[in-house]
Amino acid sequence: MASLKRFIAGAVCPRCAEMDKITMFTTEAGDQVRECVACGYTDALSEQPQPEAPEIETRVNKKANTDDHTVKQVVFFKAGSED
Predict the structure, then answer these.
(1) What is the value of pTM for the model shown?
(2) What HEC string does 8-54 produce?
(3) Which residues 6+ apart lie within 8 Å of 14 measured at CB?
(4) What is the pLDDT at residue 58?
(5) What is the b/e burial string over 43-56, where b = at least 16 CB atoms within 10 angstroms of the residue's CB?
(6) Is 61 strand, coil or helix?
(7) How far is CA 62 from CA 56, 66, 68, in A?
(8) Please, which pLDDT band fits residue 23 given cuts at 50, 70 and 90?
(9) Fewer C-beta within 10 Å: the chain N or C terminus?
(10) What is the pLDDT of residues 35-58, one digit of tens each?
(11) Closest CA to 18 of 27, 7, 6
(12) Does residue 70 surpass a pLDDT of 80?
């Protein structure tokens, strides 16, 4: 049995940015649905696991890292003597 629609206090619609226009209810399939009464935006959350999205390719993960990451000692010294 589907649940009653309830308004979510302080919620802002991701599409129209109206505040206090989002309702939330549960469908017969067990999915939680949020819906905006101002613009009609709907979004459903399911308890079933979603397939994982592949990692987005960026300049960090597509470049072969061939840099030398060994720790090197830095020595500080005075350039001249003031004796």
Answers:
(1) 0.53
(2) CCCCECCCCCCECCEEEEECCCCCEEEEECCCCCEEEECCCCCCCCC
(3) 41, 43
(4) 84
(5) eeeeeeeeeeeeee
(6) helix
(7) 10, 12, 18
(8) very high
(9) C
(10) 999 999 999 887 777 788 888 888
(11) 7
(12) yes
Amino acid identity of 56?
Answer: I
State the DSSP code for 3: P
DSSP reduced 3-state for 6: strand
In the beta sheet, which residues pair with residue 43? 34
Residue 32 burial (10 A CB sphere; 0-12, 13-18, 19+): middle
Amino acid at residue number 45 = L
**For residue 57, what pLDDT is reported?**
85
The pLDDT score that the predictor gives to residue 62 is 74
7 three-class SS: strand
